[in-house]
Specification:
Length: 266
C-alpha cells in the first residue's frame, strides 16, 4: 500500500503531517488495513495517484474531475479553519504586490499573471473565474508565467516579476503563519468563487466495503482527541463526507468561464 499527503506538506508542518498520518494509519489498522508506516514523498505529487496500491492521498479537485477522473475515488473533504473557508468549501485569494497601487481588478488589464499549473483549480481556474467577466475576445492579461507552485507564484508577485496570482486560502494561511515576510509583500485584492476543498482520495475500483472502512477510519481520526494538535497545526477543523457529485462544482466553474468566452489567460 502507498499513502501520500502532498498538497500542504510544507517543511514547517511536516512533523504535524507525519503525526496526522500516523494517527490515520492507526485507525486504518483498526479497520483491518495494513497501511504503510511512512508517507511517500515524491518530486511529482501525482506519481502515487497512478498506483493501484494507493490507499490514501490528497489531491486538487481539478485532477479528480479531469486527468484522474475514474482513477481516484473521493473519500472525504477536510474542513479547514482559515479565512476563505466555510465548512468543506474553500476559495482562492487574488493577491497583488503590497503598496503597488492596484485597487481594482480592472487595474490589472494587460498585466502579468502568475499561475502554478494548468491542472490547478485554486491557482489557474480560480484566476480565470475572477477575470472572465472582464475579458475581451478571450483575453485580459498581457502576459502569463508558470511558477510551478503557489509559493513560487507569491514569490514572483513579491519580486515584481508578476503582478497578480491566485493562491488557495489554506496556502495563504500557511504563508501568513510560517513565512510572514512573504505574506507581508502581498495584498488581497479579491476572492474566487468557492468549491469543495482538496479531497482525500484512494485508488478507484476498491470494493464498496473497503471504501466504507476507509471512511470510518478517517472519521475516527478526525474525532480522535490524541490527534487534535496535529489537526490544529494543519488547520484541519474536521472532515466531511460529501455527495459523490460535489466536485462537479469544478466543472460548473470551468463551464462558466467558457460561457464568458474566456478561453485563455494571455
Amino acid at each position: 500500500m502507498i499513502a501520500s499527503l502532498p498538497m500542504y506538506d510544507w517543511p514547517e508542518v511536516r512533523q504535524a503531517t507525519d503525526a496526522w498520518w500516523a494517527g490515520i494509519a492507526r485507525h486504518l489498522s483498526a479497520q483491518g488495513f495494513d497501511p504503510p508506516r511512512r508517507l511517500s514523498r515524491t518530486a511529482i505529487p501525482a506519481t502515487p495517484w497512478r498506483r493501484p496500491g494507493l490507499v490514501l492521498s490528497q489531491t486538487c479537485g481539478y485532477p479528480v474531475t479531469h486527468d484522474f477522473r475514474g482513477r481516484l475515488e473521493v473519500l472525504a473533504t477536510p474542513a479547514y479553519g482559515v479565512e476563505g473557508c466555510s465548512g468543506p468549501l474553500y476559495s482562492s485569494v487574488i493577491v497583488v504586490h503590497a503598496g503597488g497601487g492596484i485597487s481594482r481588478l480592472e487595474d490589472l488589464r494587460g498585466a502579468t499573471a502568475a499561475y502554478n499549473a494548468l491542472d490547478s483549480l485554486s491557482g489557474h481556474l480560480a484566476l480565470k473565474c475572477v477575470f472572465a467577466p472582464l475579458s475581451k475576445d478571450g483575453r485580459f492579461f498581457g502576459r502569463v508565467v508558470k511558477s510551478g507552485g503557489h509559493v513560487g507564484s507569491m514569490t514572483l508577485v513579491c519580486e515584481h516579476k508578476a503582478d497578480v496570482a491566485a493562491i488557495d486560502c489554506v496556502t495563504y494561511a500557511l504563508a501568513r503563519w510560517f513565512r510572514p515576510a512573504l505574506a507581508a509583500g502581498l495584498t488581497v485584492l479579491a476572492r474566487s468563487p468557492s468549491a469543495p476543498a482538496l479531497p482525500y482520495v484512494t485508488a478507484a475500483g476498491r470494493p464498496p466495503g473497503d471504501v466504507a472502512r476507509l471512511k470510518r477510519a478517517l472519521a475516527a481520526a478526525a474525532a480522535d482527541p490524541a490527534l487534535s494538535h496535529a489537526r490544529d497545526s494543519l488547520f484541519i477543523a474536521g472532515l466531511e463526507f460529501l455527495p459523490s457529485d460535489a466536485y462537479h462544482r469544478v466543472l460548473e466553474l470551468e463551464a462558466a468561464c467558457d460561457a464568458e468566452g474566456y478561453v485563455a489567460l494571455a
